[in-house]
Amino acid sequence: MRLSDQLRVAGIGIRARRLRAALSALGIAIGTAAIVAVLGLSASSQAGLLAQIDRLGTNLLTANTGQSFTGGAAQLPVAAPQRISHLPDVEHVAHAGAIENTNVYRSPLIPVVETNALKVRAASLNLPEVIGTSVAQGRWLNPATERQPVTVLGALAAQRLGIDRVYPGQRIWLKNQWFYVAGILKPATLSTDIDTSALIGYPAAERYLSYATVDKGKAVAGPPTTVYVRARTDKVESVQGVLAQTANPESPSDVDVSQPSDALTARAAAKGAFNSLFLGLGLVALIVGAVGVANIMIISVLERRSEIGLRRALGATRGQIRTQFLSEAVMLALLGGVAGVAAGALTTAIYASTKGWAVVIPVQAWVGGIGAAIVIGAIAGLLPALRAARLSPTEALRTL
Amino acid sequence: MSRTNVLELEQVTKTYGSQPPVHALRGVSFTVRSGELVAIVGPSGSGKSTLLHILGTLDRPSGGTVRIDGEDVATLTDRRLAALRARSIGFVFQQFHLSEHTTVLENVADGLLYGGVAPAERRERAAEALIRVGLADRAGFRPGALSGGQRQRVAIARALVGRPAIVLADEPTGNLDSKTGAAIIELLHELNADGATILVITHDSGLAARLPRQLHVLDGRIVADSAARPMEDA
User: Fold this and answer.
1) Is some CB atom of chain B closer than 8 A to the CB atom of A400?
2) Coiled-coil region(s) at which residues (chain A) (predicted)?
3) Is the pTM of this model over 0.95?
4) Residue A400 with chain B: CB contacts under 8 Å
């Protein structure tokens, strides 16, 4: 018997009872849709994050104060940023110094313990452009304001202090004095500690917060605690290799060098790990769907005894009857699977486009979804098909 | 004029169950030659249905020999029996057994589905068979749109489409009024005149009397065979 005939005969059984076929395929459709949507959404959000990393650039390196050999806190030399800027293949260098034991409040009336986990950092003037952010509102520091009690807030810092708009004369309470708020930064994805900071100029830090260290016999503002380095994209590794020695030639091991985009890439990979709870639910729906298909096929065999008898009389072998019912079950499940993949893909497309992500449906999601549907249909249809084939022709015709 | 035997039964018995055994057939022997039109007639419970199943190879006899188109049924596997049904036997049922989900033409073409005939040829031959039963203009209809008599004609066309050695008709007029039934018998006569070998199973002795040869079955035995007379007299 030809394949086209097999398909036609199997199709007649489904077309004859459309509503019933649709309902029994629904379970499988829901299961497949859930699985495809879970895989598609996690892949799409991963793609979105990777695209963002690409936009921000992977050539940013940071040199942080690490721990000294004895376990105490190390310190970066004040001259580190300048030395690093002399390295070949380094394009831009910025730096920031975290000022310890200094908290920032909306007003002097706020209890001292409510620090909001915010930090005060002294920042070089080119910091925003080097770490890949810009001001959302107001202005960044300039050579004049960096000497004054003026601050620019990171995105989260502004949110936690309850400042959503910059207006003239707006102040915050910083180490027992008022600092004017000049601007608010956009989120800095590559260096999230800037988000929770109130940024001030180095001269202001020295003057108002006594943030100073001794260098070559005189007091200077600093030291920096993080140096941000933009290297030429194709030379990132060679720069990374010499960064520690350049920052602190005396004890390079006190310097922590890292590449922030690495951490983000790892986060993207973690986002790609799909939500196992929803996958499990999808699997349960698939199993329920399989039971539905098996149920419908068993009823179908009982109802269609006369058709089975007739087909045997027309010369169908047991094998052909078995194949007919088996392919009907597989076709039913396949319809459900295809509908489910379409629904899952649509869900992914809609959600991803609202988030501005690229729509990614992994091949294994839809191939796996349809493949699982076929396997489930075959398993669900096996018992009913064997029953149909075992039915003796006289018995099948007697019920008439 | 030499005619081959399409059907030969020798001492066929069929017993169902064991406690107590039911003897549906108790040694049936007869021969049907190519081109005959035969009625097997008997009251219900006489063993006609069992005989039909055995003639149609839907069931195997408990004893004796059945030869269809020269082949001893007992030696054939299930698969070969199915092939024999597809090739050599056409069935007509009291309840028609047409599929409501396809057209009249497809229903007739399904008579060739298991005989290894290509789809295009199946439809071509089905159209010819519909012409033979006078329903060429109903080819595209659903069986549900036809009258009972027309449906039985479709079923007859399906039985004939493979040009089988023998057509087995089980109470073909049982679901029809007497006038329509008479037309169906008339059709069977015409098809027989064209060369088809037809065996009609019926409880209606009036109907049987209108066919050239009658085999009377009672309690699992052939009690009378009108072919005992020389056929030339008929």
Assistant:
1) yes
2) none
3) no
4) 93-95, 97
